[in-house]
Amino acid sequence: GERAALEAAIxxxxxxxxxxxxxxxxxxxxxxxxxxxxxxxCLAVRSGFDLALAKLxxxxxxxxxxxxxxxxxxxxxxxxxxxxxxxxLDPPSSSKLIPSSFDACLTPSxxxxxxxxxxGAVYDVA
Length: 126
Prior knowledge:
- By secondary structure, the chain is an alpha/beta fold.
- Helix content is 33%, strand content 12%.
- It contains four helices and three strands; from the N terminus they run αααβαββ.
- The protein has helices at residues 2-12, 28-36, 45-56, 73-81, and strands at 63-67, 85-88, 110-115.
- The protein has a three-stranded parallel β-sheet with strand order 2-1-3, covered by helices on one side.
- β1, α4 (73-81) and β2 (85-88) form a beta-alpha-beta unit.
- The longest helix is centred in the middle third of the chain and has 12 residues, at 45-56.
- The radius of gyration is 16 Å and the shape is globular.
């Protein structure tokens, strides 16, 4: 009845993928939308992150880079549950939490870059 209709409405928001994120595409909202082919609805960032990692199906041992390297333990558990390796990036200084460029931080195993906007700060990652 009502539950089935609600589930169908939510599933309709997750159409089959039309494209996937490339290895060097850190596309923000556009990148996330490309995984699903459109917007996605999640209960929390962690559930959405888990869903995205499941859909992307990176090879076991691939790196997920957290910038800065501060996050909640549950995010690390999501990464590890997919057989991936969480890597934290130390801030360049106490007053600057993200580097000017990420090129030096990336390795051949890096598949995801997670920029954590801490303490209400919003970083320009363009």
